[in-house]
Amino acid sequence: MATFTDIALSGGFNILFVFVFFLAFAILRLQPLNDRVYFPKWYLRGIRCTPTRSGHVASRFVNLNVETYFRFLNWMPAAIKMPQPELIDHAGLDSAVYVRIYLLGLKIFVPIFAMASCVLIPINLTGKALSSKDNISFSEIDKFSISNIAPGSHRLWAHLAMAYVFTFWTLYMLYKEYKMIGSMRLHFLASQDRRPDQFTVIVTNVPPDPDETVSQHIQHFFRVNHTDHYLTHQVVYNANNLALLIEERKALHNWLVYYQNKHEKNRDERPQTRTGFLGLWGNRVDAIEHYTTMIEKLTQEADMERERVVSDRNAILPVAFVSFKTRWGAAVCAQTQQTSNPTLWLTEWAPEPRDVYWRNLAIPFVELAIRKLSMVVALFFLTFFFMIPIAFVQSLANIESIEKVFPFLRPIIETKTIKSVVQGLLPGIALKIFLILLPTLLMLMSMIEGFTSLSTLERKTASKYYFFLLMNVFLGSVVTGTAFDQLSSFLSKSASKIPVIIGQSIPMSATFFITYIMVDGWAGVSAEIIRLKPLIVFHLKNTFLVKTEQDREEAMDPGSLAFSASEPRIQFYFLLGLVYSAVTPILLPFIIIFFALSFIVFRHQIINVYNQEYESGAAFWPDVHGRIIFALITSQILLMGLMNTKEAFQSTPFLLVLVSLTIWFHLFCKSRFEPTFVKFPLQDAMMKDTLERATEPNLYLKGYLQNAYVHPVFKDGEDVCSQILDEEERRPLVTTKRIIHNINAGTSKGTFV
Amino acid sequence: MATFTDIALSGGFNILFVFVFFLAFAILRLQPLNDRVYFPKWYLRGIRCTPTRSGHVASRFVNLNVETYFRFLNWMPAAIKMPQPELIDHAGLDSAVYVRIYLLGLKIFVPIFAMASCVLIPINLTGKALSSKDNISFSEIDKFSISNIAPGSHRLWAHLAMAYVFTFWTLYMLYKEYKMIGSMRLHFLASQDRRPDQFTVIVTNVPPDPDETVSQHIQHFFRVNHTDHYLTHQVVYNANNLALLIEERKALHNWLVYYQNKHEKNRDERPQTRTGFLGLWGNRVDAIEHYTTMIEKLTQEADMERERVVSDRNAILPVAFVSFKTRWGAAVCAQTQQTSNPTLWLTEWAPEPRDVYWRNLAIPFVELAIRKLSMVVALFFLTFFFMIPIAFVQSLANIESIEKVFPFLRPIIETKTIKSVVQGLLPGIALKIFLILLPTLLMLMSMIEGFTSLSTLERKTASKYYFFLLMNVFLGSVVTGTAFDQLSSFLSKSASKIPVIIGQSIPMSATFFITYIMVDGWAGVSAEIIRLKPLIVFHLKNTFLVKTEQDREEAMDPGSLAFSASEPRIQFYFLLGLVYSAVTPILLPFIIIFFALSFIVFRHQIINVYNQEYESGAAFWPDVHGRIIFALITSQILLMGLMNTKEAFQSTPFLLVLVSLTIWFHLFCKSRFEPTFVKFPLQDAMMKDTLERATEPNLYLKGYLQNAYVHPVFKDGEDVCSQILDEEERRPLVTTKRIIHNINAGTSKGTFV
């Protein structure tokens, strides 16, 4: 059992890690060579550019000003200083609201910890239940927890009362935050410049018409049913093949540049390559010539495909972006049902052009329903049975089978030290690889489900990931075993016994979670700031692929917040904090440090590094809110189970009331605030329309909207991965394709259309 | 245990009852005196009128034509003969769709029974598990059931396969029916004449404005935000007090007429009454004078109140009926969010004027949320703890306490026979009274929840009632005991054991449910056709209150379908049928007879008797569909439990798949069909608008809509209970107030505003 010394030691180590990371960050970021890795956002905004070539040669690569190293933590106040309106303007509402989740964590848990230290910790410490026992199988941390209270003690009423206080405080904070973010969103939407998506609605499931083309049919339909408001529309081409071709060409182009650079450095020798897979086998050919001809061939193919797509009637999908003369007209069309058959002419607000996920636009209604069903089933099996294939891989990936397949490795493996290392690592590696691939896998599942915008894809993936974390990490750590073990054991146990079983293990897992918070939370967050992977990738690209300043611009990878993977992990800390607030409040300071650290780090990152692929206007907040509520209810039910093992049966009805109140609060907030995140009120639309008519009476809106929603492959014939020229957005944007590329890397492209 | 003879005897008795009822009906309805009781609908439609005064005196009261008595069942073919379009035209879509629920029951269960008799009954009969046992504690019915199959037998695969077949058949029928009723609704809405509710939206939660009156504020808001579409609006006055006064005067008026009639019959004596409660005590006064002055006083009060309401600024509620120039404009306003605060300016389709429940119009948003929460809690306690107050009343209502309160009754009660009767009846009476009052109580709860239309009130009450029936009647009969016993026993049992416990009791309850179906179903339905209560009430009123032909018209009570109480009971038979279809299919013919009988009886009633208070366009169908799906899932889970007790564990995953498929089907149907029942498509609105503009270019719509939504007390100053003069409806309608009167009878009026 962990003693205080253990915890302190582990804490010391982790604090050391954090400081090492921060020091490394301070040193690395001060080197001009790394400037594009640590300040890409400023480059993208055009405020910063590559250090001037004048001056000492070394100073272009290494910072020789010793003084700057002493102020190595001064990025922290700088990160906090930027006021919120400026931050929203600089990084977008999505990012600004995202860091507020950490702030919300602080707002909830600092007062809760203060209250708990005044009331619960003294009560627990003087409980004496543990010291009187003979067995010593309890950690010292447990003395601070409810475990130190004797069963049936009247002191448990204090825990019950504090559960009420904590719940009400959390709900109050949640209410305030929801209200605040709702008004931030409205203000953000109201203050935005003119954007194509304000006037545009995406129409899916356009029924086929024997006499008209899709385009004509759409035009007639909206001319008739939105007579005064319809302006124009853009059909969507099925350009998935074309996009693949262009993507392929991009990869070849990178190889070409690589060999050209190589040739430039060594003029005497022409670089060679093999024609087979990855240049590993096949005939030797001249690399530059080979790639030049390959690229030419692909360019021809792409041109043919482009012509085919544009001229082929069947390449037009039954989907369109329909634009209206006014925001009011678009708001009306997006919120109403068009025809008596609710599976046809479905209208929705168009996501902004960067946010569109083009591949999923053409899925018919019935197929969508089937895809949803299959993904729900898949998620269930993934969560509860993921250990089965991993165990299978593990059973294969033992030394004997490796020796069978690669007999030439035998002499190396049979070495004793290597053998033990391989045997120790192999089973873990399979699991680790799975866990690293998991967010990608879940994103793929969301894609198969058929959502049509990147923001929705990220939100749905986050939900799936949270479910997985909850079942496997939280329950898996509390009641040891995989989710599948728990599923079968819970099914065979009484419904009212389940919270009791989990509840009584809760205090015992406190020390484990404290260590977990320090390793995964503290060290993980401070590792984030070093950006090790982008650092390496940038320098590799810079060495081999960069020729012009524009190439260098492209080699830069600002990254983004990766909502789908990181939000569920924040939620996990909310869950831990709420569950332990009334049980082992001594865990809270660790969580508070995590939230504070994360707040500073991520605020710094969104100011200096990340560049969001899209802007959804904080559309994810209802999900964040809902999951915190869920964590709150979980904590109440587990406390109920715990109280039962403490023979405080009278507390059950009180906690049931608390659960009902929390659910009611959620429903209330849902009806009160959620529409703000889903609908667009007519009053605001009318206001903006009126203002615009007054200030710009001669605006030629049709021209403005004409090409706003064109598939990226048609927008920029030369390079699909270059930036989309969104005329209205003054700052350059990264194309929507990048996130998809990241995700697709390593997954079969054929599995979804 | 019930043998075949028992069942046959019980069946014989019940069939006898049915015939007696039908015979009584045949005799009663042929008497001209009862014509208004059995054919009120035709009177209301103006097609039938009181038999002519010419001819034999006796023939005005008694039918002397013997021949007609022999054709005493000829109303049955007549009831079936009317084709559906005519029926919809005659009785409205609500009623026509309501009887289709019975037809759906036949469509589902007749083929299921046919399949079951070919496959399951032979398999069960030759099972021999029961005959081989020593104990004889099984009924002969059980030989037809799954009980006769030995545990672990391979024959159980047949039951599993049939569960699949039955499920798919039911789902297919449900899908067809949903589609059919959706298109019936659309066709109905499209073919309707111009009605005020097509152009009108109800706006609630209008925020207060310091500078403007409510009316001005509404006008300005809609002028600005629906510039091209806003036409006019009507504010709502808080006339609840006025309505009470006028109601009271109506009651006094009835008494006046009663005494006037009495005086007319006996000119010598002026009738007298006492001034106290119900004329039971107080000073003796001349009755006619007394009531005349009372009525005058109330009329004055009502006039003052009416003036106060109209002139008082505070009597205007923050609610209005806003009308638009086109159906398109109204459809847009009803489906969109108006302002950034989603709790203000809430818009919804206006219910038709008859359907408005005026009392609930002014409940603020937050209060609504609190009311909903408290009613959910109340329903929970009502369902699970209703036995507690009843047991308390029962403990009070014993002979000893009656003797204490009414000592003068002692000699009578102490008589031995009376004593035993009282002791036997008293406990049952308390429960019976509760069950009779239950639908009223549930309706009251729905009213407190704050729904604003009668159709919604009825639908929500039906949901509550179904929940109660399910928990207390179904589970209560299968696993003997009250719902509360079950709740506590289930909570203490394993989640996967619950279906097993219920499942294994299912076959044993078959004989009980067969008897239940015959008594409650067969006899209950055939008793419906006699209309005993309206028959008595009509003759009482006819004798004492009727002076003019118009009075007679008012004395007629056509009644209505009482969706809130009768639909859950149909659903109960669906549940029984589906649960027993794979277990004891011999129960199905009893249900089939119930559905057939009900179909004929209710089709006759909606043609000749009932007069719907409102027309919701079958808006209740999604509820009906959802509850049948729920019954289906229940049946699958219970079969799973039963299979487990039969050691057919392999069947569990198959049945889980079936459950998932059923849930998925439900979600699919929900997204496919439900919008038809909730929204109004813009295309249809535009079509009707265009047509109207072409056919009636000079229509003065504003005048038509001006007074459509006026509180009934202002519409008819003389008599609130008389018919609302809905200009467009050609057939006379019964006021919306009547149903409320029925419901309010016996409940405190002060509990809701």
From TrEMBL, chains A, B:
Give the UniProt keywords, A-Z.
Answer: Ion channel, Ion transport, Membrane, Transmembrane, Transmembrane helix, Transport
Q: Which residues form the CSC1/OSCA1-like 7TM region domain?
A: 371-643
- Per UniProt, residues of the CSC1/OSCA1-like cytosolic domain are 198-360
Main location per UniProt?
membrane
What Gene Ontology terms describe where this protein resides (cellular component)?
Answer: plasma membrane
A Pfam family found in this protein is RSN1_TM
Bilayer topology annotation: Multi-pass membrane protein
Domain of life where this protein originates: Eukaryota
Q: Report domain CSC1/OSCA1-like N-terminal transmembrane positions.
A: 10-177
User: Can you tell me where the transmembrane regions are?
Assistant: 12-30, 101-123, 156-175, 373-397, 425-444, 465-484, 570-603, 649-669
**Where would you find this protein in the cell?**
Membrane
Q: Which GO terms describe its molecular function?
A: calcium-activated cation channel activity
Question: Member of which family?
Answer: Belongs to the CSC1 (TC 1.A.17) family.
What the entry lists under PANTHER family is as follows:
OS05G0393800 PROTEIN, PROBABLE MEMBRANE PROTEIN DUF221-RELATED
UniProt-recorded name of the protein: Hyperosmolality-induced [Ca2+]i increase 1 (Osca1)
Origin species, per record, is Zostera marina
